[in-house]
Amino acid sequence: MTAVSSATPPLAKYLASTDKRTRDKSIKKLSVFLSESSENALPKEDMDKLWKGIFYCFWMSDKPLVQQALADELAELVLMITTTSQSLAFLRGFWETMVREWSGIDRLRIDKYYMLVRRYINASFKLLSRAGWDKASCEEYNNIMTREGGPLCPSDLRVPTSLAYHLADIYIEELDKVMAAEEKSLPAPLNIVLAPFFNLAALTPNSTTYRRVQSTLLDPLFRSVTTQSASNSDDNTRTTKRRRLADSESLYPHLIQNACLADPSSGKLGSVPLKQGLSKYLFDTASNPDTKDSNRRKMYTLWKETDGEDLDD
């Protein structure tokens, strides 16, 4: 990214133009700008200006097909940047902007921003997958999501709850899509990739937020891995519950078939050890001294339901 400081302000200005042709041309220039190699990421001030322009570029897009195409194009920018570290810096700017501007999005525009967030979650997982689920990159991404001002920060009251709810709704679904598309990907390290939501479930002071995370992310995750575990059980040893689980369709088949707990280089895990490892991670998170007492009780209850006892004869 050459000539960073001088190029960014006018680029942001043109991105926010009221003229669609000007905005479209600026997006094309932005793609070239971001794909140029550089050792340095944009300074924060310039990144903020750039994302302000991108936000309002999307704000002014109308008609569903136009919005979908623009959302795809904007998310693709994450993958055009030459280094993972700079892509993560770009994602940091995205989330800071979403958190800052979210409460000002009116009801007529909110759906298209939900779509944009979904596209960016998908692009983020593609980025991490292409980086081989590098631990440092995953942890930096998690820090972006959970730090103060991040969309999954459990203690920052400025973060809109509706944004966190939407992320809980789509997170594993988009991860499953990426694992389906990235056929040669290393297994996704679930204890690392899903850490922001285990953390949110443990630390949120909001009971509604906890319920949303459990109902739309934790419950489906454990149901999916339990279903896969049951389907892999020997037919002669299945209980009625095993057979019922085996007959139901796994919610995230591509993810469960190519996942591990922490170290992708060690290869994917079978569904039984994967389930056991996730259950242990849930128990350990619930046992953390910092976990809210009310959340701890709910997490222990969930652990008892998913620990494998329900599959015993």
From TrEMBL:
<dbReference type="InterPro" id="IPR010301">
    <property type="entry name" value="RRP1"/>
</dbReference>
<keyword id="KW-0539">Nucleus</keyword>
<protein>
    <recommendedName>
        <fullName>Nop52-domain-containing protein</fullName>
    </recommendedName>
</protein>
<dbReference type="GO" id="GO:0005634">
    <property type="term" value="C:nucleus"/>
</dbReference>
<keyword id="KW-0698">rRNA processing</keyword>
<dbReference type="Pfam" id="PF05997">
    <property type="entry name" value="Nop52"/>
</dbReference>
<dbReference type="GO" id="GO:0006364">
    <property type="term" value="P:rRNA processing"/>
</dbReference>
<comment type="similarity">
    <text>Belongs to the RRP1 family.</text>
</comment>
<dbReference type="GO" id="GO:0030688">
    <property type="term" value="C:preribosome, small subunit precursor"/>
</dbReference>
